Amino acid sequence: MRQGVAIFAAAAIVAASLPVLREHDESLVALLSKAKIAVTGTKPEKKEDKLDPPALAELDLANIDDRRDVITAPAHGKRTAELTLDPVYQRAATSILRRGEIHEGAVVMTDVQTGRVLAWSSFNRGRARDIAAEATYPTASVMKVVTGAALVEAGVPLNQEFCYYGGKSGIEERDLTPDEGRDKYCATLGRAMGRSLNVIFARLADQKLDQQKLGSAAKRLGFGFEIPFDAPIAPSMVELPDERLEFARTAAGFWHTTLSPFQATNVALTVANKGVMIRSRIVDRVLDEEGQVIWEAPKEREELKRVLDEKTAWSLARMMEQTVLGGTSFQTFHDRAGRPFIPDVPIAGKTGTLSNKKNGDLITWWVGFAPSDKPEVALSALVVNRGPWRIKGTHVASDMLRIYFADRGRAGVSYPPGFRGEKRRGKEPEAAGDKTASR
User: Fold this and answer.
1) Would you state the pLDDT for residue 358?
2) Tens digit of each residue's pLDDT (9 = 90 or more) over 245-300
């Protein structure tokens, strides 16, 4: 009988849950559960230690000002935080979300090598909220990335085929047991990731994993902890039910989990960095009300901890490539003739979709990085639609990556409809109209 495991951020519960981790995970738990953690590279300027309150106190990322080349956000009192955000990508993300007529959503894009956040955009109706920092919505099939890591660690090979039947919209008890009479379709673990095949992930989790193994992978990837960042981030949550069917459903991405857009990008960032979790930063420096610099961020890349071995991270990247090559994101990353919008750039991604029958929300995610062989950017896009929809998370991700690579001058990549590029001296991306084509 599996023992129920719930992953929470509170230090006391973290301490109580340590026995479910393997020995080499304990250092990460200790690392992430501290208010201030040790990192490699340069430490923050000592000026911060003398400030009361600290330099980054009350950083308000719900009210980002992107009207100038240097994007800013208000902080405590009359302080101003100058952000790492790139004006081209920040304005593009905001424009895509607004024109998509969504209920709410967010985009977080981060430089893989430095951890500098390039886009941090939230959209909702009503009073502005920092949705990118909220862990409100279910992880959905993005959970398959966590489960995939645990399965690789459990020795499941990438090239072995597993047969299945059903599971498109749910998992039942009978789906967990192989049945030669019913299981007429077969796929490798990579294709199962790309096509988000629920039965394969649920069945393999039931056969190969337990709460200790799956919980360990989730914790090492940051679920349940306040990951170090310049602003408070709600911890993403994973609860692993005791009951067999619900455990398998959770492993496949059906409820019992939540995810913030920040944490989604952090998972992609970790896989892109070959299993090393690095610190993301969104603040370059903080100015007082007189415009004097009172704090500056370290310039060097800061590595927090290796959380996956390099082989596991490599395997995840290969599995996630299938999402764009022939899986759930194929249509949004290719034209009607099957030609890629971003040619000669391999892309690793994972979609997630869940419907909330109580309020009618359609929750969609895209999480990934590109190029998958030499990563430059990690990206997450959350889109919540209520009623008829125009775009999903995968559309937002496709457009953002097209803008990124077109802006970088990548051969064969053009801007998506509605964008003609932006001069880097403060001009907003020009839209070809207020409406986007229904997709």
Assistant:
1) 86
2) 999 999 999 999 999 999 999 999 999 999 999 999 999 999 999 999 999 999 99
Cα–Cα distances in angstroms (integers) from residue 48 to residues 59, 83, 228, 290, 298, in the given order:
14, 17, 16, 17, 12
For the question of whether the overall pTM of this predicted structure is more than 0.85, the answer is yes
Bridge partners of 103, per DSSP, are none
What is the torsion angle, in degrees rounded to the nearest 10, for the CA atoms of residue 412, residue 413, residue 417 and residue 421? Answer: -120
Q: Taking phi first (over 0 means left), then psi (-120 to 50 degrees means alpha), and beta for anything else, what does residue 418 get?
A: left
pLDDT at 28: 53
What pLDDT, in 10s, does the model give residues 197-256? 999 999 999 999 999 999 999 999 999 999 999 999 999 999 999 999 999 999 999 999
| Confidence band of 421 (pLDDT split at 50, 70, 90) | confident
The domains of the chain are located at: 5-156+207-407
What would the two tokens of residue 166 be? 């059903």
70, with CB counted inside 10 A (0-12, 13-18, 19+), is middle
CATH 3.20.20.70 fits 5-156+207-407, yes or no: no
Q: Which of 403, 381, 141, 150 is nearest to 264 (CA)?
A: 381
Q: Which long-range contacts (CB under 8 A, 24 or more apart) does 30-33 make?
A: 31/304, 31/305, 32/222, 32/225, 32/226, 32/227, 32/228, 32/304, 33/9, 33/225, 33/226
Determine contact, residues 363/357, Cβ cutoff 8 Å. Answer: no
Provide the pLDDT for residue 425: 58
Residue 266 parent element (H or E): helix 261-272
Count of CA atoms in the C-beta half-sphere (13 A) of 160:
8
Long-range contacts of 278-281 (CB under 8 A, 24+ apart): 278/115, 278/302, 278/303, 278/304, 279/39, 279/115, 279/228, 279/229, 279/303, 279/304, 280/110, 280/115, 280/116, 280/117, 280/229, 281/84, 281/115, 281/116, 281/117, 281/229, 281/230
Q: Measured over all CA atoms, what is the biggest interatomic distance in the chain, rounded to whole angstroms?
A: 75
- Main-chain dihedrals φ then ψ at residue 91, nearest 5 degrees: -65, -35
Q: What is the radius of gyration, based on Cα positions, of the chain?
A: 21
pLDDT of 23: 44
DSSP state of 416: P
Q: Which residue has the higher pLDDT, 315 or 433?
A: 315
Cβ atoms of 111 and 86 within 8 Å: the answer is no
Instruction: Say what the pLDDT of residue 438 is.
Output: 31
- Residue 109: name the closest of 86, 128, 142, 136 by CA: 86
